[in-house]
C-alpha cells in the first residue's frame, strides 16, 4: 500500500471507543477530525500528549474539530486512562491494528537494539470532505497539540 499523503482520501474506520460506544469517520463526515496515534495508555509521553489535547479541547471544538486518540490498547484501558487523568478527548481502540496499518503508523521500531512492531506517534487532520489536510509523523510531544490547533484554525 502506498503511503498516505496530504490530499489523499482518509481511510474509513469504525472503532470501539471509551465509554462502550463506537466512533467512525463516516458519522463525523462534514467535520474536521484530528486523529492522533499514540503507542500506549498511561505512559509518560502519551499521558502528556492526551493532557495537552484535553487542555485545548474547547478550542478544538470552537474551531469545528473533533479530536480522537487512537492506540492498540483495549477500551477498558482507555476508560481507566481517561478516569485517572480526567481526559476530555475520544480514545478509540484498534486492537487488530487495521486502522493503524491503513494510516501507515504501525511500524517496525527499535529500542536497545531490539526490533519490534509499534505505533509511530503521528497526527492526521482530516477535513470535512474526508481528505487528509495535514500529517505529522514521528511527533515530538511538547507543543504538538498547540501546533495542531493552529493548523486546524487555518482550514
Structure description:
The chain has 155 residues and is α/β, with parallel strands linked by helices. The chain has a single domain (14-153), classed as Glutaredoxin. It has helices spanning 44-55, 57-62, 75-85, 98-102, 144-153, and strands spanning 14-16, 22-24, 32-37, 65-71, 90-93, 106-111, 114-119, 122-126, 132-136. The strands form 3 sheets. It has a 5-stranded mixed β-sheet. Strand 8 and strand 9 form a beta hairpin. The longest helix has 12 residues, at 44-55. The relative contact order is 0.23.
Question: What order do the helices and strands come in, and which of them pair?
Answer:
Elements: E1 14-16, E2 22-24, E3 32-37, H1 44-55, H2 57-62, E4 65-71, H3 75-85, E5 90-93, H4 98-102, E6 106-111, E7 114-119, E8 122-126, E9 132-136, H5 144-153
Parallel strand pairs: 3-4, 4-5
Antiparallel strand pairs: 1-2, 3-8, 6-7, 8-9
Quick synopsis:
Helices cover 28% and strands 29% of the residues. With 155 residues, the protein is α/β, with parallel strands linked by helices.
Quaternary status of these chains?
Answer: single chain
CATH architecture: 3-Layer(aba) Sandwich
Mean of all residue-level pLDDT scores: 96
CATH superfamily: Glutaredoxin
Kindly report how far apart the N and C termini lie: 28 Å
The number of distinct β-strands equals 9
Bin the helical content: 25-40%
CATH class: Alpha Beta
State the secondary-structure class: alpha/beta
What tags apply to this protein structure?
155 residues; alpha/beta; Glutaredoxin
Amino acid at each position: 500500500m502506498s503511503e498516505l499523503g496530504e490530499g489523499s482520501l482518509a481511510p474509513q474506520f469504525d472503532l470501539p471507543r471509551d465509554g462502550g460506544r463506537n466512533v467512525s469517520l463516516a458519522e463525523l463526515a462534514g467535520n474536521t477530525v484530528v486523529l492522533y496515534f499514540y503507542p500506549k495508555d498511561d505512559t509518560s509521553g502519551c499521558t502528556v500528549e492526551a493532557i495537552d489535547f484535553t487542555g485545548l479541547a474547547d478550542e478544538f471544538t470552537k474551531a469545528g474539530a473533533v479530536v480522537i486518540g487512537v492506540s492498540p490498547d483495549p477500551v477498558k484501558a482507555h476508560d481507566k486512562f481517561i478516569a485517572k487523568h480526567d481526559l476530555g478527548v475520544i480514545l478509540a481502540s484498534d486492537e487488530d491494528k487495521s486502522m493503524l496499518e491503513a494510516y501507515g503508523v504501525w511500524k517496525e521500531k527499535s529500542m536497545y537494539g531490539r526490533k519490534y512492531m509499534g505505533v509511530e506517534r503521528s497526527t492526521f487532520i482530516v477535513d470535512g470532505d474526508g481528505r487528509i489536510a495535514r500529517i505529522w509523523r514521528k511527533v515530538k510531544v511538547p507543543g504538538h497539540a498547540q501546533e495542531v490547533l493552529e493548523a486546524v484554525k487555518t482550514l
